[in-house]
C-alpha cells in the first residue's frame, strides 16, 4: 500500500503543476498583455478557467494531506525550514483567488477593479515563483537541519541562486502551459495569433531560465547534469520532451490545435521526470549530505493502509465527477 500512497503523492504534485500551473499562467499571460488587449484576454481566460479554477487546488490539498499523514518527517522538515516561502505561496493563492472572484463577480464595478486586477496578476506570478523555489530548495541540499542561527536555518535554505532559478523556470513553464491552453479557447484569428506569440515568448523564457537552472546547479555543486543526462530514463525523458515540443510547434503552424494541450502537458511531465527520477525515492536533500527518503520516512503501516484505502475509494467517488465537470465546461457554446 505504500507504493499506492507514493504514487498518489507524485500524481497530486504533477496534476497541480499541470492544471493549477496553467491557471497561474493565465494571470502571467495577462501580466504580459498590452492594456488594450487585456479585456479580451480576461474574457477568454474566464471561459477557460472560470468554472474549474478552484477545483485545481484539490491536487495541492491531496499532496499536503498525504505528506502530513503518511510522511510526517518530510512534512515537518518542509514546514519548519521552508515556512517562509510556503507562507508566501499560500498568501499568493488566497490573494489570487480573492481577486479573481471580486473582479469577476463584484456587483459594483468601481475603482476597486484596478486593485483586484493587479492583485490577481502579481499573485499569479508570485505563487508559481515560490512554488518553484520550494521545489528547488527541496532538492538543492541547502536545507540545514543543524543550523544554529535564523538565516542559515530559515532563509538560506531557499534564498539561493538555484532555488530562484527553478522558481523563474516554473513561472515560464506555467505561462507556456497557459498560452497553449488558451489558443484552443478562442475562435478569433487575432486572439490565436496573440496567444501563439505569448507561447513563443514563454518558450524562449523557459529555455533561458532552464539554462540558468543548470548554471546555478553547477555553481552550487548540485549534480543536476548527472541526474538528467547520465541515466537512461532522464536522457530519454529529455529527448521525448524535445521531440514533443517540435511536434507541438509543427501542429501549431499547421493550425491543428486539438492535441496541443496534451503535448504541452506531456512535455512538462517529461521535464519533471528527467529531474526527479535519478534521486527518487529521496524527497529532500539536506546540507549534511543525507537525504530524507519517501520509503524510509513513511508512517506506520496501519496509517499507510488506511490512507491508501481512502485515496483509492476517493478516486472512485471523485474523479468521474471531476472529469464530468471539466467536460461540461470545456464544451463550446453554440
From TrEMBL:
It is a multi-pass membrane protein. It comes from the Bacteria. One of its GO terms (biological process) is aerobic electron transport chain. One of its GO terms (cellular component) is plasma membrane. The chain crosses the membrane at residues 6-32, 53-74, 80-102, 122-141, 161-183, 195-217, 232-252, 259-280, 304-327. Keywords: Cell membrane, Membrane, Transmembrane, Transmembrane helix. InterPro entries: Cyt-d_oxidase_su2 (IPR003317). It is found in: Cell membrane. The keyword Cytoplasm does not apply. GO terms for molecular function: electron transfer activity; oxidoreductase activity, acting on diphenols and related substances as donors, oxygen as acceptor. The keyword Transmembrane applies. Belongs to the cytochrome ubiquinol oxidase subunit 2 family. This is Cytochrome bd-I ubiquinol oxidase subunit 2 apoprotein. It comes from Pedobacter rhizosphaerae.
